[in-house]
Amino acid sequence: MIKKILFRSVIIMMVLSLAGGMSACKSKKKLAKEKEAAEYAAKVNTARQTLLDILNDNTTMSLEEKEAAVKSIKAMNLNDPEIDELIRQAEAKLAAERAALIKKGQEGQKTAEEAMVKPEAAATTALTTYFASIAGATSVSQANMQIAEALKMFSSPDVPVLVIISKENNVVDYDKPTTIKAYLNYLKDTKNNINKVDKITLDSTGKIKELELLKTY
Amino acid sequence: MKIRLLIISVVLLTLSSGLIAQDNLSKQRKAAIDSLALEKVRDLSKYISIIGSKETPFSEANRVIERTLELFNDDAQMGVSSIYREEIKYYPVRKYLERLMALNYDKINITWYNIEYISDLELQPDGRYVGVITIYQRFEGTTEDGMVYKDTTKKDITVYVEKKQTQISGRLIDFWDVLLGDIRVAETEK
User: Which residues of A touch B47 (CB under 8 A)?
Assistant: First the structure.
């Protein structure tokens, strides 16, 4: 009898144990699923927040960092319609920002190039004014003062001045070369201010080291 | 004999090819050279006016004399006439300019007008272009006591234009050198 009772107890315990084991297995799977879901939800939340921050300019990330973040979110393939839409919007926004940056860069380059050209343009304007005032001076002393001022723009009074009398295709005809001092005196003496500045070459200090004029008969 | 003939042929060929090269100037380029030569004569008229004027400071007149001399051939001469004599005197340009500066008048006014070619620039065998430009010069000199001497002289200026080469800032520049020759008196009247 006792043996029978013991045998039954063992059987019951085994059944109970088996039942308990199965239940534990079921719970682990559920947990894993729940964990996975939680992780996915967390990923979606983080992605959503990052994308919203990018769209609302609520981030200190650089354009490159923002582009990398969107790319990384896209690579996750979250399969969330809301995230997909946010990715589309963010990509469009960043593309516009990139285009604006490129344009700004080009404008900056253009401004820099203009700044490079500017000294020659400024010198041309100043020189043209001096030529007119020397040729139009009403006295020798007035003209001499203007000549002295104009010469300050040049690296020396002996800077060569070439006067182009004709330009045809690649053939350029020059008058006899002179110096800037002689040319300014020529303007004073003859009042013949018909040559326009064609090309100015500056030295490293910004002074004119060569001048080409074009005759305008 | 054959060698001599060959050398002469080569020299002639070289010379003629040089002439052809210079004569091949387009109308536009030739016109630019014509205008350049006329401009040099106009410049000369301004210089003569400045040198002759009693209002020009001595140092300025001397500077302008040097500039004027740069316009001329070294041996060029200037003809001088007067309504009081038939003889025309010729002076080297420097001497003429120095005499002009020292003329014994209280006031001098010299103007040139009708400056134009009477003989177009033509290519010569030596490679130069030569032409003649005529001008009319009106001279008025007033003495201290108010006596006025006036005359109008027609003068012919021989002009030489030659292509030359120089080096500027390391590059070779071909330029046209215009030089004035003798200035001959054609006629003088009151």
Answer: 189-190
Contact predicate A160/A210, CB 8 Å? yes
Tell me the shortest Cα–Cα distance from A165 to chain B, in angstroms. 6
pLDDT digits (tens, 9 = 90+) for B25-34: 899 999 999 9
Give the contacts of A189 (CB within 8 A, at least 6 positions apart): B43, B46, B47, B50, B64, B67
ipTM of the complex: 0.86
In this complex, how many residue pairs, one in chain A and one in chain B, have their CB atoms less than 8 Å apart? 72
DSSP per-residue string spanning B7-46: HHHHHHHHHHHHHHHHHT--HHHHHHHHHHHHHHHHHHHH
Give the residue-averaged pLDDT of B59-64: 97
Is A186 inside a domain boundary? yes
Q: Is B109 among the domain residues? A: yes
Residue B51: domain span: 25-189
Q: Give the range of the structural domain holding residue A169, as residue numbers without chain letter.
A: 119-215
B4 part of a folded domain = no
Whether B168 and A215 lie within 8 Å, measured CB to CB:
no
Whether A136 is in a domain gets the answer: yes
Let me know if residue B14 belongs to a domain: no
Tens-digit pLDDT profile for residues A78-108: 889 899 999 999 999 999 999 888 888 888 7
Dump pLDDT digits (tens) for A30-49.
888 888 889 899 989 999 99
Q: Is A217 on the interface with B (CB under 8 A)?
A: yes
Q: Is A195 left (phi over 0), alpha (psi -120 to 50) or beta?
A: beta
pLDDT (mean) for A136-145: 96
**Residues B170, B163 contacting (CB under 8 angstroms):** no
Q: Which residues on chain B are in Cβ contact (under 8 Å) with A178?
A: none
